[in-house]
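TL;DR need structure tokens for one chain.
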Amino acid sequence: MVLPPGDKEGGPDNRHRGADQWMYVAEGSGVAKVDGRTVELAPGSLLLIEAGETHEIRNSGSEPLKTINIYLPPAYDPDGNALPAGRG
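>> reply
TL;DR here they are.
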């Protein structure tokens, strides 16, 4: 994911019901809000957003915020559409 300075992704209703999201910060800086807690993001940060947690990622820096995101199990199909929550 690449977020320009000042941009954000997600919000108070954003969650992945059936998948954990691992987010690694490759470049830039930002702030993550995950279920009401605030986490500072910097290069090398690794953040786990567990299935069902609401979250928002915001670029608080002056350069693009570049992250690598892995969803387990997959949260999106090859066309980028959200997959339904799997059965536990």
